[in-house]
Amino acid sequence: MSTQAVGVPHVHARAELCSKPITDNGRQIVHFQGSTYVMVGIYFAHAPGNGSNGGRNGHRELFYILRSTDRDAETGGLD
Predict the structure, then answer these.
(1) Is the CB of residue 64 less than 8 Å from the CB of residue 39?
(2) How far lies 34's CA from each of 1, 38, 68, 78, in Å?
(3) If DSSP codes are grouped into helix, strand and coil, which group holds residue 16?
(4) Domain ranges of the chain
């Protein structure tokens, strides 16, 4: 799933589908679906299909909010 925020594309990816984050010049870098991204945020979301187990204390999955490293090359780094 992806979304547009102020003209900058972001990808919301389940953490388990990404590589382990590595730090490069203070940025958290991950690989997802064959591309390299900068991690700009994280959040927990209820796992889909939990039915009655998906209540307030139900299982949650970790998601990363990712931005393409191509944008860093265009702008010369982070904003």
Answers:
(1) yes
(2) 16, 14, 12, 22
(3) helix
(4) 2-75
Residue with tokens 């904003």: 79
CA 16-27-36 angle, 5° bins: 55
Tens-digit pLDDT profile for residues 35-78: 999 999 999 998 766 555 555 667 899 999 999 987 554 454 54
Instruction: Please tell me the distance from the alpha carbon of residue 46 to that of residue 29, in angstroms, as a whole number.
Output: 25
- How far apart CA 65 and CA 13 sit, in angstroms, is 7
The residue to which tokens 């990404």 are assigned: 18
Report the alpha-carbon distance of residue 9 to residue 2 in Å, rounded: 7
pTM value is 0.69
